[in-house]
Amino acid sequence: MIQVENLHKAFGEIRAVDGVSFTARDGEITGLLGPNGAGKTTTLRMLYTLMRPDAGRVLVDGIDSGADPLAVRKRLGVLPDARGLYKHLTARENIEYFARLQGVPANEAARRREALIEVLEMGDFADRRAEGFSQGQRVKTAIARALIHDPKNVTLDEPTNGLDVMATRRMRQFMRDLRAEGRCVLFSSHIMQEVAQLCDRIVVIAKGRVVADESPEALRLHTGESNLEDAFVKIIGSAEGLAA
Amino acid sequence: MNTSLVVFLKEVRENLRDKRTLINALLTGPLIGPLIFVMLMNVIISRQLNQAEAPLELPVIGASNAPNLLEALRQQGFDPQPPVADPIAAVRNRDAAAVLRIPAGFGASWDKGDPVQVEVYYDSSLRDTQQPVTRLRMMLENYSRRTGALRLVARGFSPVLANPVVVDERDQSTPRSRAGSLFSILPYFFVLTVFLGGMYLAIDLTAGERERHSLEPLLVNPVAPWRILLGKIGAICLFSVSSLLICATAFTVAGRFIPTEKLGMDLGLGPGFTLKVLVLMLPLVLLIAALQTLVSAFSKSYREAQTYLGILMLVPVLPSVLLSLMPVKTAGWMYAVPLLGQQVGITELLVGGSVTATQVAVCLLCGFAVAALMLGITARVYGSERLAISA
């Protein structure tokens, strides 16, 4: 479970995140929806302890990220906005490297790795060097290495960004699988349809603030719009920076 | 497994697969120095030898005015060339290094016993003229002294009367020390090699990783940033030390191709020298790796890092240039200054002087202290949240 409490972060004059709070529960998919530049990535970066919040705190399975960032990172599987691979290493070696950094025992890591390669359908490129991978192959490898330590909580920053239709469909199914395994799945997106389709809970962020935090049904009811997309636009105040 | 070791092994493996890094660190970087050095030394030495041994060929105006003088010069290795019309122009245009002019009245004055004048035209601002002019003047003075002595003898005086002071030169240079002054640039090549050997890695492992968007995922792992830094520094050091080893070995081989024995010089190059150089250079290896990583961490892109490090590369040349321009006496404190200590120590080893255990200890201790400080600063930067974020 991930609890975010009143996070603040400013870069100079710009208040990128201005009091964000929400909770992502185990066995649920929580979507962080907002236009580009709303503060989603910054919120996630504070969540996975790459940035320190100016104020507020993050609890992952009850552990305060400010007090024990390394313990929090062990419990998180993170697909950051940046998902570069090591081009001179094969997909398998890329995954292996992160397994060692996570401190996963060798036989356990090998078992996990092969399982992930299977589930993510990476078999035909797992032993190729990452140089020249397609966007889809890159994202798959990045997800596999992020989940190699079998984390209870999974954080994905725009996981379908740049993927084609088929790859996007598979990615969404993969996230449902993660939920079925009882994990806490938190992902960010600026695509309304994706969030509407997948999420048990939707957190809408605009200009660094949470403007809605409800189930899709509640959101529809609350705004009086039968269409979820119209509901989003109504909440945020404009459709700018969003994608259907 | 220790996470620093994990990072170290991965960086080494990945970069061993990168042809460009390999060529730079293990081929061009360490070998370009010895190659330039051998060529340079061969040119310098053969020029000096040629100038000293070859007959001195200079145009002479009015040679027929003093056949005896010319005969005497010929015996000393002078080869008179046909006269030029304008000696000043010839010297200015570098057609001749110098021109000797013997005036028309030479014979008449000589016979009377009057002092006679010969003129040597040259341009002292041209470096090439120095040696021929000195040789010509020596030849002329020899002839003048001999004739003077003969004249004194003819008048019943001892020639010693004209030379009350006799200078006896006692040159204390040894073949090795003469080699040293010529080879004082050598330590710079070693520093340069360490710099070049690690530079590609240092840029790639921080600025490059950030540019390729793999630094953020790496830092999200449950590993303290300083551990990651340590692994990366280790990989950089491994490459720069390999580079240094190849370079020092290449110099040992290259030493055989430099005709030092013709100049009566002797270089202390050999396996023992290589080993001592390696030990003296170790603190610099660490210091340079940390410094390069620091610069790389501050740079916004790969290119920017390359530019900064290119400028930084000129810094180690300073002690070499300063010491060769102002040959100061080697003092104990110099060993305590990184870069200067290595310069002084390696030069001393090269000329066969002794470097005491205390001097080595001071050099290593101070070098490692500064390196540790630099490492600490770099670790601080590595821990900052701005490091990973590229955009």
Structure write-up:
- The complex is a heterodimer of chains A (244) and B (391).
- Chain A is an alpha/beta fold and 244 residues long.
- Chain A has a domain at 80-150.
- In chain A, 38% of the residues lie in helices and 25% in strands.
- Chain A has helices spanning 40-47, 69-74, 91-102, 106-119, 135-146, 165-180, 192-198, 216-223, 228-236; strands spanning 2-11, 14-24, 29-33, 55-60, 63-64, 76-79, 153-157, 184-189, 201-206, 209-214.
- Chain A has a six-stranded mixed beta sheet with strand order 6-7-8-3-9-10, sandwiched between helices. Chain A has a four-stranded antiparallel beta sheet with strand order 2-1-4-5.
- The mean pLDDT of chain A is 91.
- Chain B is elongated and about 100 Å long.
- Chain B is mostly helical.
- Chain B has two domains: 3-45 and 176-383, no CATH class; 55-162, D-Maltodextrin-Binding Protein, domain 2 (3-Layer(aba) Sandwich).
- A four-stranded mixed beta sheet of chain B has the order 2-1-3-4.
- Chains A and B meet through helix 2, helix 3 and helix 5 of A and helix 1 and helix 9 of B.
Keywords summarizing the entry:
heterodimer; A: 244 residues; alpha/beta; six-stranded mixed sheet; 10 strands; B: 391 residues; D-Maltodextrin-Binding Protein, domain 2; 2 domains; 64% helix
Morphology of chain A: globular
| Widest β-sheet, arrangement of strands of chain A | 6-7-8-3-9-10
| Secondary-structure element series of chain A | EEEHEEHEHHHEHEHEEHH
Please give the share of residues in helix of chain B.
55-70%
Oligomerization? heterodimer
* Cα gyration radius of chain A (Å): 18 Å
Biggest pleated-sheet summary of chain A: 6 strands, mixed
Q: Determine the most extensive contact between two protein chains.
A: A-B, 32 and 28 residues
| Cα distance spanning the termini of chain A | 29 Å
Mean pLDDT of chain B: 86
Which strand-content bin applies to the residues of chain A?
A: 25-35%
N- and C-termini, Cα separation of chain B? 33 Å
Q: What is the averaged pLDDT score of chain A? A: 91
Residues in helix, % of chain A: 25-40%
The dominant shape of chain B is elongated
Low-confidence stretches of chain B: none
